[in-house]
Amino acid sequence: MKKLNIVMVVGLLLSFIAFAFTNIRVGGITGKITPPEGASSVALVAGTDTVRAELNSGSFTFINLKEGVYKVWIKGNAPYKDATIENVAVKDSATTDLGEIKLQQ
User: Cα-Cα-Cα-Cα dihedral of 21, 71, 63, 38, to 10°?
Assistant: First the structure.
């Protein structure tokens, strides 16, 4: 009887864990900075959290983002200025494409 109870509890826990992780949906943010040499880094800010992405010829991608609103911060190399893009929305399992981001001098 004890074995049956343990098996049932373990089975219930496993099914709960499997169900909990199937409901997590993530999205992303992508874009391209021009000119590519105008930026040294790109970061994503959400509340007090900051995440950096690698720049590859001016292109960047943030993945595994929860649904929400983010701020993208681009650190410019002289003579280019820093840039900030506010209120970037990530919706359920979608990637938001910011397109071409032209840095100002």
Answer: -170
User: Who's near 84: CB < 8 A, 6+ residues apart?
Assistant: 71, 72, 73, 74
Summarised one tens digit per residue, pLDDT across range 17-28 is 555 555 567 899
How far from 43 is each of 12, 15, 29, 59, 62, CA to CA, in Å? Answer: 41, 37, 11, 13, 9
User: Taking the C-alpha atoms of 29, 30, 32 and 38 in order, what is their torsion angle to the nearest 10 degrees?
Assistant: 50
Looking at residue 56, what DSSP letter applies?
Answer: B
- Which of 84, 99, 80, 70 is closest to 39 using CA atoms? 80
| Sheet of 39-46, strands arranged across | 49-53, 39-46, 68-76, 83-90
Output the pTM of the full model: 0.74
4-44 residue pLDDT tens: 667 666 665 556 555 555 556 789 999 999 999 999 999 99
For the chain, how many residues are written? 105
